[in-house]
Amino acid sequence: MRSVIIGSGISVPPHVVSNNDLAKVMDTNDDWIVKRTGVRERRFVVPGQGSSDLAIEAGRAALTDAGIDAGQVDLLVTATMTPDEFVPGIAPTVQRELGLGMVGAFDIRQQCSGFLYGLDMADAAIVSGRAQTVLVIGAEAHAGYLPLGSGWDVLRGTSERVDEADYATATASRAWSVLFGDGAGAVVLQGDTSSSGGVLSSQLNTDGTLGDLIRVTAAGFKQQPWLDTSQIAAEMHLPTFNGLELFRQAARRMPQAVRAVVADAGLEVEDLDVVVAHQANERILDAVRKKMMADDVLIPSNIARYGNTTSATLPILFHELRLAGRVNPGALVCFTAFGAGAHWGALLYRVPS
Predict the structure, then answer these.
(1) Is the pLDDT of residue 196 over 90?
(2) 304-317: b (≥16 Cβ within 10 Å) or e
(3) Hey, which of 30, 31, 100, 309 would disulfide with 183, CB 3.0 to 4.6 Å?
(4) pLDDT digits over 1-12, tens only?
(5) For position 142, which CATH number holds?
């Protein structure tokens, strides 16, 4: 039994925010952002729209692409670090709105590596016989993270002026806030006993000693109460980054994971047709390409148009590569990601012939 991808779909908000738009609400410019991140524009949800809405649209598109009914899905995995609400997460909402019926549905929280972990879990469920058809979705709505204040009114065209204090706050966050965008991607996997393709090998890794690379300390139940105004005043609800070490670890760990799953399948890196890598930062991708002696054809990027959509980067890029004819029958594809936790790994997949 092999797990094969029979459909994919994406959902991105229509509201596009360019680097020049961000320059209206913080001290930055297009050249500064592009040189440091490779991002030129990103998409943001509107107030009242969350990661579940994007996940539902992407999931519905993937089911349509697969040519199956929602009732055929017997397991749902949603990867997100930006749920609509703390409890119960987005999986029950997505399950209900897609009409999946009484199936297992759960969120996983591996941040940028969430979709990769979801693929591995789907494969394990299928190969073990616990499921036949699994829907895996990565969905994020980062807009709520970004401390732009009245700058949001400027970006949405309802105001022409940002408050001076909000401008300063937004500027203080620019090292990380310019990276992120909103979006979702989904794939449908199904068991196949006759195909020579499917998931060939997978490796997941976690190193808790790297937990401080990216951290958000509020809201959390180590605090009593778990959320209050003092935490917000201390900006505990905003992410902190160890950017240099994050860069070094991501550039090292993703190539290692790719080589490991390729070797486990008895193949060579040279056999790969495309590497679908997490779109965190174009400079990280360049470093990965250098370590793997690869170019942007083998390790492509779409971060310029979407920014870092965290758990959604892999399925969005995979879907676009499918549409572009890069993952045709027989193609050898490797998914890889590195993110907060630290969680990382790779999964090797052969497109069925």
Answers:
(1) no
(2) ebbbbbbbbbbbbb
(3) 309
(4) 899 999 999 999
(5) 3.40.47.10
Domain boundary among 125, 160, 192: 192
On the CB side of 227, CA atoms within 13 Å amount to 7
Site of tokens 């680097």:
19
- pTM for the predicted model, two decimal places: 0.97
| Active site positions, annotated | 112, 278, 308
Bridge partner list, 343: 206, 339
How many angstroms separate the CA atoms of 138 and 265, rounded? 26
- pLDDT score recorded for residue 137: 99
- Token pair for residue 231? 């935490």
pLDDT in tens, 254-306: 999 999 999 999 999 999 999 999 999 999 999 999 999 999 999 999 999 99
User: Within this chain, do residues 182 and 297 fall inside the same structural domain, yes or no?
Assistant: no
Same-domain status, 179 and 282 = no
Q: Do 313 and 212 fall within a single domain? A: yes
Write a three-state SS string for the chain: CEEEEEEEEEECCCCEEEHHHHCCCCCCCHHHHHHHHCCCEEECCCCCCCHHHHHHHHHHHHHHHHCCCHHHCCEEEEECCCCCCCCCCCHHHHHHHHCCCCCEEEEECCHHHHHHHHHHHHHHHHHCCCCCEEEEEEEECHHHHCCCCCHHHHHCCCCCCCCHHHHHHHHHCHHHHCCECCEEEEEEEEEECCCCCEEEEEEEEECHHHHHHEECCCCCCCCCCCCCHHHHHCCCCCCEECHHHHHHHHHHHHHHHHHHHHHHCCCCHHHCCEEEECCCCHHHHHHHHHHCCCCCCCCCCCHHHHCECHHHHHHHHHHHHHHCCCCCCCCEEEEEEEECCCEEEEEEEECCC
- The average pLDDT across 114-138 equals 98
Based on the domain organization, do 164 and 210 belong to the same domain? no
Nearest residue to 277 via CA among 259, 260, 255, 262: 255
